[in-house]
Amino acid sequence: MRATTQRLRIHDELKLKAVEMPNIYDRISTGQLAIIKGRRAVYLYYASYGGGSGPLWAVEGVRVQFTSKKDIFYREALCRKVSPSVIELELEGGEVVSIPLEAIFRYDQFHLDADERFDFESDDIILTGD
Question: Are 44 and 101 within 8 A, CB to CB?
């Protein structure tokens, strides 16, 4: 009985926290700049893939795999630089390409082991104007 009461209390506290902390994804759109755990980032879009859904951020210094609207095969890259309209990626082999945000189709870290991923929560995000 006591464990059930504790679970209910924790559940109520989480619901209250969710109400107090508005969802930033209701207020932002593609191109929004932010600082996430000390790194510059730009919001791409809210994705819904077959295995899950969530917000996609390009974060400087983070390894990713991506596809573009013209290239359907995954490519691995390191995000070098972000801006409100373009991300700069260093591909395997050292080639650096600039890709407009609207040309990004898929963008994720699913190819990395869990301990290699750059994980963060919504409260790690500080929205910026530049």
Answer: yes
